[in-house]
Amino acid sequence: MALLEVKDLEVEFPLGRITLQAIRKVSFSLEKGERLGIVGESGAGKSVAAFSILNLLSRPGRISGGEILFEGDDISKFDDRQMRSIRGNRISMIFQDPMMTLNPVLTVATQMIECLKAHRKISKKEAWDISVSKLKEVMIPSPEERMESYPHELSGGMRQRVVIAMALLTDPEIIIADEPTTALDVTIQAEIMVLMLDLCKSNNVGLILITHDLAVVSQVTERIMVMYAGRVVEEGGTKEVITNPKHPYTRGLLKALPQENTAGSRLNQIRGTMPSLNALPKGCAFNPRCDFATKECHQVVPKLEGRDGHNTACIHLEKIPSFKSELGNQ
Amino acid sequence: MGKPHSEVSGAKIMTRIKSFLNSDFVYRFRKDKVAVVSLGIVLVLVLSAVLAPLISPFDPYDLKSIDIMDSEIPPVWDENDGDERFLLGTDPQGRDMLSTILYGMRISLMIGFFAVLLQGILGVTIGLLSGYLGGKIDAFFMRLADIQLSFSTLMVAIITLAIFQAAFGAELYSKLAIFMLILVIGIAEWPQYARTVRASVLAEKHKEYVDAARVIGMSPARIMFRHIFPNTLSPILVISTIQVANAIISEAALSFLGLGMPVNQPSLGSLISSGFEYIFSGSWWITVIPSFFLVLLILSINLLGDWLRDALNPKLYKD
Amino acid sequence: MQATLVMFVISLIGFSIQDNLGDPLRELVGQSVSEKERDALRDRMGLNDPFLVQYGRFLSNAVQGDLGNSYFFKKPALEVIARKFPATLELVIGATFIIIFSSVPLGIYSAIKPNSWLTRFILGISIVGISVPVFLTAIFSIYIFSVELGWMPSFGRGETTAPFGWDSGFFNGDGLLHLILPSLSLASIMMPLFIRLIRSEMMEILQMDYIRFAWAKGLYPKRIWFLHAFKNTLLPVITVGGVQVGTMLAYTILTESVFQWPGMGFLFLEAVNRVDTPLIIAYIIVVGLIFVVTNTVVDLLYTWVNPTVKLVGQKS
What we know:
Chain A is of the alpha/beta class.
């Protein structure tokens, strides 16, 4: 049994007269210590998927279908008290912008100790000691002094380290990281990413990494899931998907990466933009942007199918040339 | 809202009115019962105040029509002492309450309206100038606004009016009261407008249409009033509604303290003030009825203002 | 810096009132003295000195606490005001207590349960509260609770005792009973304002990422609402609160005049009616001082709650 298993998850946002379907029939699973990357453009529903695991959807979003099994229990049906014993204890989160994640009027110590005290019966002194040791783990210099700091006294990278330390405080089984480096300076991004990878490996923590950056995913995760307009379009082992992408959307994302091009040449962007959720095209949602789209694509919603754990939601798989030959043609 | 240009044909106005009536704004308004009722009450009250000289049964300023024998008659619905000539009873001087209230409301509304008009003119002008010109002028006015906002309007008004009353003597003061009230309430609250307008100007200033207007050689004044100002109308409308209510409350408070309208030319506030001792001797209507109208008026305006704020959702300047 | 400027302007106003309102000679010598004698007296008193000299003298006297004698009480004006000050202070403290202990819980409740019927009720009542002028609340509370029901005393301050060397109504039943209606009336106008302010600010804060993060940490809802969200809500509330102290002072004049509460506001109204110039000036200067002091206190409070503002190297 997988540690976490999401089955046919559906999330909707009722907005007055219309209801937006943000997530449609999304399924995935995570084994203990496994690292999964969820990739897609903004608006693809990857953050919504992540937040729905801990039932932290912002109003008026709600889970309208499916199951979220954590160690076999459907936590999407948990009440507030039960959910609280999971949040920040067994599953913790790292948010996108460390400038906004820490409460500006409370010290680091307050914000770390409260988390421990919410989940364990320990003294303040013990909580302090654990917090300091976690700050050491994330390589924060003079952690005792940093404990007394307010967030605004720390740099962006330092703050994200504090957030990571907080996520590790209770030795959770899973960490969900929502674009953890996007808001940071480019120079610090790699540093933080490597730190997270090392910590997950050494603590045997499962990681769900949400990002739009395929390069990051390829370095950190073992498996990858590509989302488009609320659906999974491709999933599989990271190496397999990166070297042999099948879905036209995944290919587009990969071709848009700078290192795939020689210096000075134009970046290959996917034409068009992601449709908004209230105006999705019929059939395969990617069809207006797809080079291979046919009439059929406007009628059928493709199923996610494949072999050896590499699944793709596209009806034209056999027509599309292999990725390598396509690159070679350019 | 303003006067249509003369060259605009009648048909054009009709289509404009039609499209306004079909708009989302009007639709949402009609669905909100509280807003509809509030607007109805405000319209009725304002209309009857404006038409007071035509519709009120007596002229409370005409001393000849007042008979002291008619004093303290309770309203008509009092079966024992009611007098059908006086629908809402009479006050201690024998004045008809209904007429006095209508005239009083006229004065209250007039002061509220002109004070807010003054605030608006001052505030909008300063706000436009500050936002458009920036630099030292902007810094100066905004600092002034800060300081002025840190004082309470009512406190400043009370002290200013008290000093003037002491300086002029009560008799001369009572003649000038209406202007003094408009002036003091009007000057005290301009920063509200100035800050909001300035914020909108800063937001609009760098948009393309303003650049375009500058490029074709429009004068800054014309750009400001013809192009930037219209974009600030919805926050101004919201502020104005609330400010009229506030101005009427301030006026009532000042008149209640004897620093506002005199007894022979009473506003709702001075009516309440002069009647409030009688509440203890049983002549409750002398205070209660004007109070009722005052609260009804302010409450309706406030409810309308609240609705407007929710509906237009403008970016109001916040402290 | 701003405080000094404000006090300077107020002293100028005070001085120009003194200069233009009422002739100090008349108060001293009456009408019977001849014109020549008056002129001599004028010279001796320095009333013919240049403006700046006179203003300097006024200022140096004022700094030493000498604002002249009240015409009516025949005592130093500041002393007269100081004697009335505790009564007003008590009223303000009473009202502040009511405002804080009602608007904070009600504001928080209506922010965290925006759709409940109780929230709608609170908001409905609060807009009515804003629309009823404070003097009407005062009049009708007297009418209902004192005249009709007879539960409360209708006016005055009641019995006062001075266990701490300060004549106060706080420490005995009668004094407290007298305090209830006036403080309630005074609070009634500010309460809705703060409820609405706390609600709108807190609703905005509750949308912040750090609140969502606090939920993700599995904290107790109470801790999130009352510590994480409320401490941030406090910042704008403190700022507005500072401004409202001034407004409250203005409302004390209204409340005191309805309840015949023997405080500074009531005294001021009497002074205006009697054209007791030194007393008017003294009141204005005391009010100015209160403004300056409260603004300073608000700045300190703000710094204390908000760690991102440091007192060292303060602006302005």
